[in-house]
Write a structure and sequence with these properties.
The protein is α+β, with helices and mostly antiparallel strands. The protein has helices at residues 2-18, 30-34, 61-72, 132-140, 145-157, 164-174, 183-196, 220-240, 242-245, 254-266, and strands at 24-29, 44-50, 77-80, 85-91, 94-108, 116-119, 127-130.
Length: 276
């Protein structure tokens, strides 16, 4: 965290210097703000929102996105995602190590500084309406933070092709009315439902349920993979305990342990719909 926070300070300094005097909100987002960060999936999201009437970052969302990327490019190698900017170390003008930092530029919709618009490089819409605090509150008040962390660990260890944002929504939906149960009971419950269900459940973006279609994040292919892993984890937990289900090295042979370790080291960890 200390290294990530140092980079966060550098990102903020570079942006405020480039847009001196501009009305900007710079804050943590993603798992850091939601309380779901784990050691094997610790990307830090830095949210950079211009106030609704601020134009020094750009006249429109595309300008804001590109101008923030330009402001960071002297100090970092900047890789554009759909709505985020992924940062890498810069070494002799070449791209170095990934810094596990995504910068998300946008603009607040109005003076309340709640809803915000993000630029999108791809997809059916050129902008995405979202609300950071609504997402944070949805996670923090779910009562199932521990199970969300277990879901994130399973996602990394099995290299699941599901966005963390979508997985969180799935787990919260399936655990309604189960917040008083133990961690073991909660996780067993969600694995059992996923393993038994042949079609995806419906998830909604809590910040914009009518405007943001999340069906593409949880299609039949993604659900099938999730279902297979749920079945595998239930069988392994039953035969050898949760250590085996989560791929702990002491429960596995050398080859399997290497596969799990390699997956944990190489998988990217996007946690939002705009990370695609």
């Amino acid at each position: 965290m200390a290294e990530l926070q140092n980079h966060r300070a550098g990102v903020e300094a570079a942006i405020r210097a480039a847009f001196h005097g501009a009305s900007i909100s710079i804050q943590y987002g993603g798992s850091k703000k939601k309380g779901t960060m784990i050691k094997e999936s610790y990307d830090l999201d830095i949210i950079v929102y211009a106030y609704h009437d601020e134009t020094r970052l750009g006249e429109n969302l595309s300008d804001i996105y590109n101008n923030v990327a330009t402001a960071l490019s002297p100090d970092y190698f900047v890789h554009p995602k759909t709505s985020a900017l992924r940062l890498y170390a810069k070494a002799d003008g070449a791209r170095g190590d990934r810094l596990h930092i995504d910068v998300v530029p946008g603009r607040y919709v109005d003076e309340s500084r709640g809803d915000a618009y993000l630029h999108q490089n791809s997809g059916q819409k050129s902008r995405l309406k979202t609300n950071l605090q609504t997402h944070v509150d949805h996670i923090k008040t779910s009562g199932v933070i521990g199970t969300l962390k277990l879901g994130k660990l399973a996602r990394v260890r099995y290299d699941l092709d599901i966005k963390q944002f979508a997985l969180d929504l799935v787990l919260i939906e399936l655990l309604k009315g189960k917040t008083a149960e133990s961690l073991d009971q909660q996780f067993t419950h969600v694995l059992q439902i996923i393993a038994d269900r042949s079609t995806p459940i419906t998830i909604e973006d809590p910040a914009n349920p009518a405007g943001n279609d999340l069906s593409g994040l949880l299609d039949t292919q993604v659900w099938s993979e999730l279902r297979n892993v749920a079945t595998t984890m239930l069988n392994q937990a039953d035969s050898g305990g949760w250590g085996l289900a989560f791929g702990e090295a002491e429960n596995l042979g050398p080859a399997s342990a290497a596969i799990i370790t390699r997956a944990a080291e190489t998988v990217d960890a996007p946690t939002k719909p705009w990370a695609r």
